[in-house]
Every structure is written in C-alpha cells, then in structure tokens.
Amino acid sequence: MTQPTIGFVGLGYMGAPMAANLLDAGWPVTAWNRSPAALEALAARGSRTAATVAELRDAGVIIFMLPDLGFIEDAAAPLLDAWRAVPPAPGTVVVVMSSVSPQGVRGFGDAVVRASGGNAAVVDAPVSGGTVGAQNGTLAIMAGGDQGDFDRIRPVLDAMGTTVRLLGGLGAGSLAKACNQLLVGTTTAALAEAAELAERSGMDVAALFEVLAGGLAGSQVLTLAGPRIIAKDYTPTGPAKFMHKDLGFVLESAAVAGSAVPMATAGHALYGTLKEQGLGDMDLTVVRETIARLGGH
Question: What is the mean pLDDT of residues 158-186?
Fold first, then answer.
C-alpha cells in the first residue's frame, strides 16, 4: 500500500524532531510552520513545504503540534474552508498531538467532521517524553478516538514513539496527558522544593538527589529534571508557562468528573505565580526560582 503524505503543522521544540523522525522512517512529509528557518531545516532532510495549511488538504494524515487549541483552530481554518468546498478523501485523519483541553478537542473534532462532510476525523494523541524523547523517537503517545482511525495512523505514531496506546474515545488522550502533567508538574515542583530546603539547610543538593534516586523517590522526572534543578540551569527545553495551562486542563476535567484534585490545584497556583514572576518562557525547572523567591531569596 502506498504511504499517505503526512501533513505536519508546527515545527517547534517538539514538532521539528518528531517530523524529522517521520522522514527518517520513510514517510513523505509536507510541513507548514510560521517561521521559515524550521521549514528550511526540515526541507534539507527531505520534506516538502506548504505555503499555507490549506495546501495540506489532500494529505491522508495531518498532524498539528502547536502550543494550544486556539492556535490549532486558527491554523486549521483555511484547511476546513478548503474541505467545505471539496471534501477530502474518506478516511482522512487529523491528529492533534499538542496538550489541549479534552473538552475542547471534542468540539474541534465535531468541526472537522462537519467541514469534511464526514470524510475526516480527529484523533487526539498528545505526547510525553520531552525534547529528548522527541529527538530519539521514544515518546509515550496517549491517544483518543475511533479504533479504526487509530489503527490507520498507528504506523505513523510508531515512528515517533515507543509506547503508543488508545485510551478511549476522542478526548481520552488529552485527559491522559492532563494526568501525566499533574504528575510531572507537581513532582518537578516537589524536587525544586526539596532542593531549596536542602541547600538552605547547608546540604549538598547533588548528594541528596543521588541518594533519592536510589530509593522510592527515584523517577524519570528526577533523572531528567534533577541535574537542571541542581545546576539552576533553566535553559528552555519547553516553556514552563505551558504547565500552568496543562494543570488548568486537570482542573477543568476534574470539575466535569466531580473529582477532587488538591495537588493539581496547588500546582496550578504555583505555576501561575511563576508566570507572574516573568519566568514562563524558561524551562519547567525554573519553578525552583519561584520557590526561592517565595522563601525570600
């Protein structure tokens, strides 16, 4: 079977290496991005470039990797207009790989179905693993949508991740990502809090984290974020402000489900303070600086 062209929208910290892995796996990729530099870099690896998102109208799979659903809806508007004029081929799948609202992505899915005359559907498939996972093709991908649509795009997802699961209908992937961010955001904050407490008490933070890694406190978050927290290296691998957004999705989903989320509530407030301090464009581990300032330093 001929491989469908993959449309890829959004070549940021995560999107660029994800699209590159698709090319490396042999998928034909046509990309669109606001800034030309990322497009040129991907084109050097063999991709084609779309002048507008509407030019992706005939792609069998169209992936969106933009900061939030508002950006996706704006970028997709000319594509949906093109589909209203001439519907796409049946079985076309739009894949939302950004961290978005579970409720919001269902509304976007309805809009895609209407605009395409029922020929296209949305699968939400957000990712976890950071820029390292994106570069190495080892992302965890949590999907929501129709089983048949998921099965069609599974080989595409496998080129970008090593743990790929369908967790339910549309929106389930985004709910899973919200749960993921609840754990990542609060764990990173707890590590930062422990580091500040230890340092102000005269303890070597690196030695502390080495011991913690050997016990029940050991985690992927400690392994990846720990060195940055120790060094106070907040060079962005992804803006910290996105965690505030993601924990907002936890609160939104909890309100719908009637679930208490005290950790998410505290984390959302903390990362809100981080944004107010002007630190939102730095790495997530900059939450240590937020905690330091709260402590009077």
Answer: 98
Give me the chain's average pLDDT, please.
97
Residue 228: CB atoms within 10 Å? 20
Write down all domains in the chain, each with its CATH number in brackets.
Answer: 6-169 (3.40.50.720), 175-294 (1.10.1040.10)
Angle of helix 241-257 versus helix 102-115 axis, rounded to 10: 90
Token digits of residue 27: 């998928």
Asked whether the beta carbons of 75 and 53 are under 8 A apart, the reply is: yes
Taking the C-alpha atoms of residue 66 and residue 110, their distance in angstroms, rounded to an integer, is 19
What is the Cα–Cα distance from 110 to 2, expressed in whole angstroms? 29
pLDDT(84) > 70: yes
User: Is the pLDDT at 297 greater than 80, yes or no?
Assistant: no
Q: What is the mean pLDDT of residues 90-110?
A: 98
Average pLDDT (242-246) is 96
Distance CA 218, CA 220 (A): 7
Confidence (pLDDT) at 3: 81
Q: How confident is the model at residue 2 (pLDDT cuts 50, 70, 90)?
A: low
Which active-site residues does the annotation give? 177
